[in-house]
Design goal:
The protein has 293 residues and is α/β, with parallel strands linked by helices. The protein contains ten helices and twelve strands. α1 packs parallel to α3. The radius of gyration is 18 Å and the shape is globular.
Amino acid sequence: MTARPGPWASGRFDVEGHRGARGLVVESTLAGFTAAFEAGVTGVELDVRLTADGEVVVWHDAQLQPEKCVSTGPDFVGARVADLTLEQLRTVDVGSRTLAAFPDQRPSEGARICTLDEVLAHGREHAPDVWWTIELKVNPLDVGEAGGRRRLLEGVLASVHEAEVQRQCFVHSFDWAVLELSAELAPDVLRSALVESSLTWVPGSPLTGSVRVGESHVDLCEGALAVGAQVVSPDHAMVDEAFVAHAHAAGLSVLPWTVNEPDRMVRLIEAGVDGLVSDYPDRAVALLSPTPA
């Protein structure tokens, strides 16, 4: 059987750091990505959005949240990323505040929101073999975000080609229309279909692109294949051995998110997943490391 494309094609298990390594260092900062590389990841997951002036930046939230952001000039905390220019975003410190949910999280004092180009260049310098799972944040019910879908995707594709990582990355999204468009614009770049329990694969879902749940397709894996995905990436609570076997039989790899507890990591590895995304990639790497004799 031909190996499914991806970092696992060589037989290795793919450990991906979530937003860099969020459990270790403040998310989406260069220091956070460095922490992931130093932990021994094979991949990193990150989120991208468009600024008001059309720049592709690495940031998860639609708004600048006060628990993560500190204004150093005009007060932009609470503003939407899409309403600010890159220059305006650069005035916001996104590295100094740590989150109580991650008690071991270290700050990256004074860090600023990065462009995708900057993060990919950082990776090329420090971890040239790492895979990139690039989540395009598009809410299909948000007129602005849906209208900017092509522009965001074109920016991402330009960046991955400029960094020469187009063969070691996934275009990754909850908005499956992104995957369909990516299959059209860049058929050689791999695509990953994100799935959230009770939101994605339900009748009337706005997230599944041209696929109509229960009408055009009744099976989640068939739907993911129909939008051009090579990977299905579900909430880890959805994943068991039967799910993995079904996805693999359909030709899809399985990359669950976000898996932080070692016991759950072990169960998923035993179920046959191809990789996992974690805030604590060091834990997964430690589990997979050979025990000294």
